[in-house]
Amino acid sequence: MPGDAILVLEKVCRNFGGLMAVNFASLSVRKGELRALIGPNGAGKTTLLNLITGIHAATAGRILFKGEDITRLTPDRISHKGISRTLQITSLFSGLTVYENIWAAAQSRKRFFNPLARPEAWTDVREKTGRMLELTGLADKAGAVCSELSYGDQRILEMGIALSTDPELLLLDEPTAGLSTQESMALVKRMRAMLRGQTIVLVEHDMGVVMELSDRLTVLHYGEVLAEGTPAEIMANDEVRKVYLGK
Amino acid sequence: MLPDKWKAAAFPLAFVLVAAVLAAVPFFEDLFYQTFLTEVLVWALFAISFDLIFGYVGLLSFGQALFFGLGGYAVAIPTLKLGMGTGSGLLLSVAVPAAFAAFVGFFSVRLTGIHFVIITIIFALIGSTVGETWTSLTGGADGLVFMPPPLDLGIAQLDLMDIRTTYYLVLAIVAISYLFLRRMVRSPLGKVFVAIRENEERARLIGYDVRRYKLLAFVIAGGLSGLAGGLYTLSLKYASATFLHWSVSGHAVVYAIVGGAGTLVGPVLGAGLIMALEHYLVNLLQATDLVVGAVLVSTLLLAPMGIVGFLRGRRK
Question: Is the pTM of this model over 0.90?
Answer without folding.
Answer: yes
